[in-house]
Design a protein that fits this description.
The chain is an alpha+beta fold and 325 residues long. The protein is built from 11 helices and 15 strands. A 5-stranded mixed β-sheet has the order 11-12-1-10-15. Strands 2-5 form a two-stranded antiparallel ribbon. The protein has a two-stranded antiparallel sheet with strand order 3-4. The radius of gyration is 21 Å and the shape is globular. The two termini are 19 Å apart.
């Protein structure tokens, strides 16, 4: 157990799927040396198969106090091979003016981006950013026979001790979010480190700092003056992803509100376009309660009344979203 827990809140009502966070992470941490396929941060479309493909059905996590069986995603079928484009031919040789794929992968990251579900005019989707949850009860830590995975006492960040790891990949099997990756070049496991070298200098993680939609709040759960405590503990307006996995995640989500469905005559109904049952599968049984709270606070703000929660989520000043010291 750590003395304090650093956490992140992501407001799904503001994510535009621009992948700026993904690029910020990729450029800083995973753009070379066996990490090409790794996305410590990714933004996937929900409903969708995600990254790696069908991670929600890949096993791992806890069944009570017992680790559940899981699988290691395959590079070709689950993570997917990158699309190769004819850059030299199209941009430099002057023989073909069009960029084209030179291979035919069966799956790549974000293969099903923006597809969603439903039929016009009631189709729907939203963007779901994902990082390592730096869980309070991490299955990856429990599964490692080498004791290479640990939680830092000062902030609860989950890290892999590279000097102890031997690449057995039990952690990959155990993580139900599939946010631990195997580096074949160095034969060891690697994962999101919550940008702890930045955090130690009072700088927020790259994915949060670079987010153009200002969806990410970072702070300690016990810091009553911080945005994370206010959103998660005081207002109870953010939920964890797949709480049924039993790992007690510390990445929280403000669930997405939904436009209404249209009836056969094209008139809006009282039924939300995003099924509440789908959101409950992702975020647990309190989804309806939280959506009701968000609607009520939005209505207050629209009437010109004060709403601390809406002011927090609007995030007028980016620096107020981060309180990491």
């Amino acid at each position: 157990m750590s003395k304090r827990q650093l956490a992140m809140v992501m407001d799904l009502n503001k994510c535009i799927g621009c992948q700026t966070c993904t690029v910020a992470c990729k450029v800083q941490w995973t753009n070379r040396n066996g990490r090409d396929y790794m996305y410590w941060n990714n933004v996937e479309t929900a409903p969708g198969k995600g990254y790696p493909k069908n991670w929600q059905e890949s096993g791992g996590g806890w069944e009570g106090s017992v680790l559940k069986d899981g699988k290691i995603p395959s590079l070709a079928n689950d993570y997917g091979m990158p699309v190769q484009l004819n850059y030299e031919q199209a941009l430099f040789a002057g023989t073909d003016p069009w960029l084209k794929a030179t291979n035919d992968p069966a799956w790549t990251p974000n293969w099903d981006e923006d597809e969603g579900a439903g039929e016009f005019p009631n189709s729907y989707h939203f963007y779901l950013p994902r990082i390592c949850n730096h869980c309070t009860n991490p299955a990856c830590l429990a599964a490692c026979p080498r004791g290479a995975i640990y939680k830092r006492e000062e902030d609860g960040i989950v890290l892999v001790d590279q000097s102890r790891c031997r690449g057995y990949r039990h952690c990959v099997v155990a993580c139900p979010y599939k946010k631990v990756y195997f580096n074949p070049l160095f034969n060891r496991s690697e994962k999101c480190i919550f940008c702890y070298p930045r955090v130690e200098q009072g700088i927020p993680p790259a994915c949060a700092k670079q987010c153009v939609g200002r969806i990410r709040h970072v702070g300690f759960l016990d810091d009553e003056a911080g945005p994370v405590h206010k959103i998660v503990v005081k207002w109870k307006a953010a939920l964890t992803l797949r709480p049924d996995f039993g790992t007690e995640p510390n990445a929280y989500y403000v669930p997405p509100l939904s436009s209404p469905k249209f009836d056969a005559e094209g008139k809006p109904t009282a039924e939300p376009r995003i099924p509440v049952a789908f959101l409950e599968k992702l975020f647990g049984p309190r989804v309806g309660e939280v959506l009701g709270l968000l609607e009520a606070e939005r209505s207050k703000k629209a009437r010109g009344e004060e709403s601390e929660l809406m002011d927090l989520l609007i995030a007028y000043r980016q620096e107020e979203m981060f309180k990491i010291r």
